Amino acid sequence: MAEKRNIFLVGPMGAGKSTIGRHLAEMLHLEFYDSDQEIERRTGADIAWVFDLEGEEGFRVREENVIEDLTGMQGIVLATGGGSVLSRETRNRLSARGIVVYLETPIEKQVARTQRDKRRPLLQTEEAPQHVLERLAAERNPLYEEIADFTIRTDEQSARAVANQIVEQLGF
Ligand SMILES: Nc1ncnc2c1ncn2[C@@H]1O[C@H](COP(=O)(O)OP(=O)(O)OP(=O)(O)O)[C@@H](O)[C@H]1O
Ligand SMILES: O=C(O)C1=C[C@@H](O)[C@@H](O)[C@H](O)C1
Ligand SMILES: [Mg+2]
């Protein structure tokens, strides 16, 4: 049987990777994974707690390991953590083992979408979320672009409509 392909969603916090990823997996009859959720499952702690106990550095090690394992699977949709592309090894694995879709959205939209929940420790600081997200974007957008097979904006349509658009672009 032909190898089943993987789809990896990358992009910043609030781009909609987790939400759109679930729709996409359902539409394509693939399994859905989310690296943040997988870290929570393996540690039995939430993301904020991992950041508190181990710092961002410890979190990144866990993230790299989880993505190494998940990218070794076949036939999955994976929503990656927003900062996972900081690791060169992770970027190489994502590029080599699946189709990478960059979900792009303006900062203002990211701010609005991440305002209500407190699960993103990098945004729980004195600095305004808008500034943090701008700083992260300057460093990370080139990395998302570097590995993307294609890019889709997620601020103009519903999550389901974006998933549909991805299915069309994938052509399978
Ligand atoms: N296309 C969309 N249209 C409207 N709302 C959306 C869309 N995509 C996502 N949202 C909403 O935005 C919020 C953030 O989305 P989501 O958690 O999927 O982002 P994420 O990219 O996984 O972020 P993170 O990197 O922090 O995990 C959710 O409440 C979701 O319902
Ligand atoms: O952009 C980031 O660095 C992060 C995004 C989230 O998906 C989580 O992985 C965590 O909150 C860190
Ligand atoms: Mg997510």
UniProtKB/TrEMBL annotation:
Its main location: cytoplasm. It comes from the Bacteria. It catalyses: shikimate + ATP = 3-phosphoshikimate + ADP + H(+). ATP binds at G14, A15, G16, K17, S18, T19, R120, Q157. Its cofactor is Mg(2+). Binds 1 Mg(2+) ion per subunit. Substrate binds at D36, R60, G82, R140. InterPro entries: P-loop_NTPase (IPR027417), Shikimate/glucono_kinase (IPR031322), Shikimate_kinase/TSH1 (IPR000623), Shikimate_kinase_CS (IPR023000). Pathway: Metabolic intermediate biosynthesis; chorismate biosynthesis; chorismate from D-erythrose 4-phosphate and phosphoenolpyruvate: step 5/7. Keywords: Amino-acid biosynthesis, Aromatic amino acid biosynthesis, ATP-binding, Cytoplasm, Kinase, Magnesium, Metal-binding, Nucleotide-binding, Transferase. Its EC number is 2.7.1.71. One of its GO terms (molecular function) is shikimate kinase activity. Belongs to the shikimate kinase family. Monomer. Catalyzes the specific phosphorylation of the 3-hydroxyl group of shikimic acid using ATP as a cosubstrate. PANTHER family: SHIKIMATE KINASE, SHIKIMATE KINASE 1, CHLOROPLASTIC. This is Shikimate kinase.
